[in-house]
Amino acid sequence: MQIRRGWSTLALAVALAGVASAAMAQHRPISALNWAFGGTVHTVARAGRVAFVGGRFNAVASRHNVTGGFAVVSPATSQRALRAVRVHGNVNAIVPDGSGGWFVGGHFTFVGQDRRPQIAHILANGRLDPAWSGRVDGRVLSLALVGSTLYVGGEFARAGDGAGPAMPEARQNIAAFAAADGALLAGAAAGADGAVSALAVSGSTLFAGGDFATFLGQSRQRLGAYDTGAGTVTAWAPSADAPVRTIVAAADGATVYVGGAFANTGGAARAFLAEIDTATGLATTWNPGASDLVAALSLVGETIYAGGRFTQLGGGARNHVGAVHAASGALLAWDPNADDTVLALAVSGGTVYLGGEFLNVGGKLRLHAAAVALGTGAVSPWHPAPNDPVRAIVATAERVALGGAFEALGGHLRRNLA
Asked: From CA 210, how far away is CA 234, in angstroms rounded?
């Protein structure tokens, strides 16, 4: 027997009914039915009124804390700041809408009771925007808002808008929608021939990274740029020899920082992390290097914060998260020390928010989400405890929006057996 994540609570009730003895008819198995499991449940056994659940999971959470793959949390209390509409699936990307709400993208079909394949607009009050109707036929990995246009990157072949489920237009792995109502636009219609997993904006230029060889009709190895004003691909062509996962633009627009799985980019050897000139497409002399995948970057002043799968950064030991100087590449003392991959970073005020596959940060239990001090890396008490990995974070002083593979907050650490 196997119960997939997302249906664990419902399927567990059915499974328990099947293994119960005749005496069980007089006793509801409330100790199991009230929990949602991250990961996968493989087996259920009963002893008296206690259910034992085995599988591949790290945490379980009360079904009363079920959120779906999107949650909005208070930065002060770790509790839900807003009971947002439930996204029934994974959220891989979030971008603010500029009015207190969010665009979310991932791998889902329904938001609340409404069909919203892979993309949705959630208003500042947590409700689904009923007027926004953009959609694609495969998973979304990245989002970027440029003026009144939402750009969507991922792994998909077709897109549509309006009433009904139709997706009549070909849009390969990148598409543009009107931010106001989700109308499919003509921009970027030529697509990319592989996944678009990173999007970043500098002025009117949209930088894209992923695992493509052709971007909007031009040969571009995993990195490319689109002039959103002119509607044309720029000459920028750094090339990378393995997938790009994250891009962040420098404040002056002269360079971008990129992270991923590559060993070479911009015409130079650069292990997993590089700075690339936006005019020439060549790597700068900045070269801190990492020992493994860099999945998330954030730039604050003269500091680059990096998260990923690495255990070395800038020539020193850093477990999955660390910081380097944005000009020199020198490793900084900031060292939160996560025990597994960091997939998302966001900075608000004096706090850096982390999301990922980790269960501990700085020696403290922090299931998949944590907050650490911007200056020292000290772990704060903030602990919303999603029951599965966090893949996207957007933070302000009032709200922290989380997206990922989780179903619920308030998780309890239970590794494979509960």
From this structure: 17
DSSP string, 338-355: BSS-EEEEEEETTEEEEE
pTM of the model: 0.91
pLDDT in tens, 44-97: 888 888 888 888 888 888 877 899 999 999 999 999 999 999 999 999 999 999
Question: pLDDT tens-digit profile of 272-286?
Answer: 999 999 999 999 999
Q: Tell me the two tokens of residue 417.
A: 């057996």
Closest CA to 358 of 342, 346, 374: 342
Of 318, 323, 368, 330, the C-alpha closest to 347 is 323
Closest CA to 233 of 194, 257, 206, 212: 206
Q: Which residue has the higher pLDDT, 35 or 13?
A: 35
- Using CA of residue 69, residue 75, residue 81, residue 82, what is the dihedral sign? negative
Using alpha carbons only, what angle is made at residue 90 by residues 85 and 96, rounded to the nearest 5 degrees? 60
The one-letter amino acid code at 407 reads E
Which segments within 216-341 are labelled E, that is strand? 218-219, 223-227, 232-233, 244-249, 255-260, 264-265, 268-269, 273-277, 294-300, 303-308, 312-313, 316-317, 321-325
> Closest Cα partner for 99 from 83, 122, 67?
122
Say if residues 342 and 321 touch (Cβ distance below 8 Å). yes
Question: In whole angstroms, what is the distance from residue 61 CA to residue 294 CA?
Answer: 30
CA distance 209 to 194: 10
Map residue 239 onto helix, strand or coil. Answer: coil
Give the DSSP letter string of 128-196. Answer: B-TT---EESS-EEEEEEETTEEEEEES-SEEE-SSSS---EE--SEEEEETTT--B-STTTT-BSS-E
Task: Report residue 165's pLDDT band, with 50, 70 and 90 as the boundaries.
Answer: confident
In angstroms, rounded to a whole number, what is the distance separating the alpha carbons of residues 356 and 345?
A: 9
Is pLDDT above 90 for 41? no
Alpha-carbon distance of 208 to 197, in angstroms, equals 8
| Distance of alpha carbon 411 from alpha carbon 317, whole angstroms | 30
